[in-house]
Write a structure and sequence with these properties.
It comes from Actinomadura rugatobispora. The chain is of the alpha+beta class and 564 residues long. Helices cover 38% and strands 26% of the residues.
Length: 564
């Protein structure tokens, strides 16, 4: 078949074919290079961290140039510090990270001149730089390319591409790598600035959050915090556990709206304010009322949610107030899960006090779970479905035959509700506390007459009760002195009804209550003053002492540390 247009005609030699083939090859090379530059530019633009930069470079350069290894070093004070790698063993990287370099090495030459160094074999590199012969060998790598990373006129690092066996690059490939090194340098400098900012932010976050939750008899607690996975990786979520008087403890969780260092700083201010107000033993609604004023002073754009509650280990009551915060969860020993709040005020900063106060009675060995919205919205972003998942996870974990320890329960719940990776849209905080009731045998209470003989009766009650508790004579003598001063002060300066209460735990708490709202304070006394030294004696004898308002008046309390 040889007619015109047949197969034979198509197979005739074409004198223009070699030139056309070369043109097509050049066109394909240009197109490939453009695609590589576009892809690397796009991925580097999206890279926030140095790890992102390494992944972007490894995902583009290694397959494009058929490299077997990639390593990126930052340079500081004449030393190489590993940023990231691909295709190298951990042992080799550990040997060279932190090592010095000189100008008589490929790295030094590339950084000094700003010109990439290309070596088709190890022999070629050693012939030019003999001192590198003594450096650690990277497996079977033989050919190497050293790309200096120069940003803002300053050498900040070097990228090394390695190949197994001999590898030669053409002029166009060398020009392309030189251009790409500039893109890598700019992205790396930007990422290192981001990492430094994020590191400072994390340090700030760690400084503002509790390093360790205090160990108190009333509860056994554990917390979890996960910052948002983007940006400065720091936010305004916080939690706290604050020991109070009379074997009570405050549990706090809050969320400053937004992310970043300013929000973290605001969080620190609010946490400090809450702790300071807690020292005054104010009720939850009063504390939120005062913190609301603080948030209001931050400006129109500043607001936060907060839940503040007090657990009383004598009664088992958890009394709390909430400002725009998701409701707390009570988990009973049988696995029953209940959301406690029936009312939630607007967030702090826009709320209109007074705040509502609610009380729930919890059993011994139950759990209180406080959380931020980011914790339950980490899945699909829906608050209600997230709260349902939390309730199911708690019921499943606690309803088993053996109730897990608090730290284990925290880990289980966090694993079920938070994504496996840290790329969350919002900060997430979780505070779980197992409630421990004080045994009835460790609580003793008596009414006292509102007259001078009350101090004598109080001393008798103290002697009898401390003897029944098998406490030492030194504790008895100190407690008698403390109770005598407290009761005498009430009889002289306050009004009835008067009641004495003793609580035995790790500390011995003596509490004298009356119907007056006047709080005592230590007075400065002169050498000739006949009174005014009672509270000075109380302060000297007690480990801690203070006063708090109650629904019927006030209570003055002291604490003495008991030996094991």
């Amino acid at each position: 078949m040889s007619g015109k247009g047949g197969k034979g005609a198509l197979e005739q030699p074409d004198p223009l074919h070699p030139r056309r083939a070369a043109g097509l090859a050049a066109l394909r090379a240009v197109t490939t290079q453009g695609a590589l530059i576009e892809r690397l530019t796009r991925t580097l633009a999206e890279a926030l961290t140095t790890d992102n930069v390494v992944s972007a470079v490894a995902g583009s350069l290694v397959p494009a140039f058929r490299a077997d290894g990639l390593v990126i070093f930052a340079v500081e004070e004449g030393r190489l510090y590993l940023v990231g790698s691909s295709g190298y063993s951990r042992g080799f990287l550990d040997q060279i990270s932190g090592t010095p370099y000189t100008e008589e090495t490929p790295v030094g030459e590339a950084l000094r001149t700003g010109v990439p160094q290309f070596f088709g074999s190890t022999e070629e590199m050693v012939a030019r730089y003999p001192m590198v012969a003594d450096q650690p060998k990277a497996g079977h790598m033989d050919s190497r390319i050293f790309l200096p990373l120069v940003a803002s006129g300053r050498a900040i690092g070097v990228t090394i591409l390695s190949f197994v066996g001999t590898y030669r690059l053409g002029g166009e490939e060398r020009t392309l790598l030189t251009a790409l090194s500039s893109l890598i340098a700019q992205a790396l400098e930007r990422a290192r600035l981001h990492d430094a900012t994020a590191a400072r932010a994390r340090e700030l976050q760690r400084a503002l959050l509790p390093h360790l939750l205090p160990s108190v008899p009333a509860v056994t607690a554990a917390a979890h915090y996960l910052p948002a996975g983007r940006g400065a990786e720091v936010g305004g979520d916080w939690y706290d556990l604050i020991p109070l008087s009379a074997e009570r403890v405050a549990l706090v969780i809050g969320d400053v709206m937004g992310h970043g260092i300013p929000e973290a700083a605001t969080m620190g201010r609010l946490r400090t304010a809450v702790r300071t107000l807690s020292d005054l033993d104010l009720p939850p609604d009063d504390i939120l009322d005062r913190v609301n004023d603080i948030v209001g002073d931050l400006g129109e754009d500043g607001f936060a949610t907060c839940l503040y509650g007090v657990y009383d280990s004598v009664t088992g009551d958890f009394t709390f107030s909430s400002a725009g915060h998701p409701p707390p969860v009570a988990v009973f020993p049988d696995g029953t899960v209940t959301y406690l709040a029936s009312y939630t005020a607007p967030p702090l900063g826009i709320a209109d006090p007074p705040f509502e106060t609610e009380t729930a009675t919890l059993p011994d060995g139950g759990f209180l779970v406080l959380y931020t919205d980011g914790f339950v919205q980490a899945g699909d972003g829906d608050l209600e479905s997230g709260m349902a998942r939390l309730a199911l996870a708690l019921a499943t974990a606690v309803g088993n035959a053996e109730t897990p320890p608090v730290a284990e329960l925290r880990d289980v719940i966090a694993a079920r509700l938070l994504p496996a990776h840290s790329d969350t849209r919002d900060d997430a905080a979780l505070l779980i506390a197992r409630t421990n009731r004080l045994a009835p045998s460790d609580v003793a209470s008596w009414p006292l007459p509102d007259d001078p003989k009350a101090a004598g009766e109080a001393r008798e009650h103290v002697r009898d009760q401390l003897a029944a508790w098998h406490l030492g004579e030194d504790v008895v003598m100190t407690t008698e002195l403390l109770v005598s001063e407290l009761v005498s002060n009430v009889v002289r300066h306050a009004r009835g009804p008067v009641r004495l209460r003793l609580l035995r735990s790790r500390s011995l708490t003596c509490e004298v209550s009356d119907g007056s709202l006047t709080t005592p304070h230590i007075r400065r006394t002169g050498p000739t003053d006949e009174d005014g030294r009672g509270l000075q004696l109380v302060s000297a004898l007690a480990q801690r002492w203070g006063a708090r308002y109650t629904s019927h008046g006030k209570s003055i309390w002291t604490e003495q540390r008991l030996s094991a």
